[in-house]
Amino acid sequence: MPIAKATEPLWHEWDRKAQKCGLRHTVYAVNGDQYTGEWLHNLKHGKGTQVWKRTEAIYSGDWKFGKRDGYGSYSIPDPVTKEYKKVYTGWWKNDKKDGYGVTFYSSGERYEGEWSNGLRSGWGRMYYQNGSIYEGQWLADQPNGQGMLRLSNENRYEGGWKDGKKNGPGKFFYLEKGQLFEGIWAADIPQCGILIDFGRDEAPAPTPYPIPKV
């Protein structure tokens, strides 16, 4: 009596064909998002470009097991001109900014430096809207550690920071007056220190009288 050959259920074959692996053309999600690029075991993996339908934002770069991971850029359309503007270009890890990268803010401000878990952490330089520039250490999105803040009038502070405020030993150069304050700061407020003349002869608006030496 002949033995009937077991046949594989048809859905097994359909499932194999549905598995996304390697380079694919554009794949659309149910919500309208679309992805064009490489896959591995049904997950975005390798090089690819994602477009989000709701925000029209675009990410183009590296993916790892379904998340942005590696080097890539994220852009959004201008609400008026509809032209795409880069928001972030740099390194990613586990779908968050991580490593060195540059972020462009809508206010015109810019940050160049290190990130960790989506926050500014490590060394970085921030260009503020008012013309000030901070360069130094960051932690959890705030200046923290040692850094220098140069104001738009060229006055500057060099020293310690904590939670985004001047903290610890530091120097403040009043270059327009030709003076230097050196002392201890706490929560942006100088607690104690000394004020001396510094470059007074070259200062654009020096004080009427020099500070007497002690």
Helix and strand layout, with pairings?
Layout: H1 10-18, E1 22-28, E2 34-40, E3 43-51, E4 58-64, E5 67-77, E6 84-93, E7 96-104, E8 110-116, E9 119-127, E10 133-139, E11 142-150, E12 156-162, E13 165-174, E14 179-186, E15 189-197
Antiparallel strand pairs: 1-2, 2-3, 3-4, 4-5, 5-6, 6-7, 7-8, 8-9, 9-10, 10-11, 11-12, 12-13, 13-14, 14-15
Organism: Cuculus canorus (Common cuckoo)
Keywords: Cytoplasmic vesicle, Repeat
GO cellular component, one term: acrosomal vesicle
How would you describe this protein?
It holds the Pfam family MORN. It comes from Cuculus canorus (Common cuckoo). It is found in: Cytoplasmic vesicle, Secretory vesicle, Acrosome. This is MORN repeat-containing protein 3. There is one protein chain. The protein is mostly beta strands. 4% of the residues lie in helices and 59% in strands. Strand 7 (96-104) and strand 8 form a beta hairpin. The longest helix has 9 residues, at 10-18.
Structure in a nutshell:
The chain has 214 residues and is mainly beta.
Query: What is the count of β-strands?
Result: 15
What is the overall pLDDT average?
89
Strand order of the largest sheet: 1-2-3-4-5-6-7-8-9-10-11-12-13-14-15
Terminus-to-terminus distance: 117 Å
Number of helices: 1
Shape label: elongated
Largest sheet: 15 strands, antiparallel
C-alpha-based Rg, rounded? 28 Å
Would you identify the regions where 5 or more consecutive residues have pLDDT less than 50?
none
Fraction of residues in H or I helices: under 10%
Structural class: mainly beta
How much β-strand is present in the residues? over 45%
Give helix and strand order, one letter per element, not per position.
HEEEEEEEEEEEEEEE
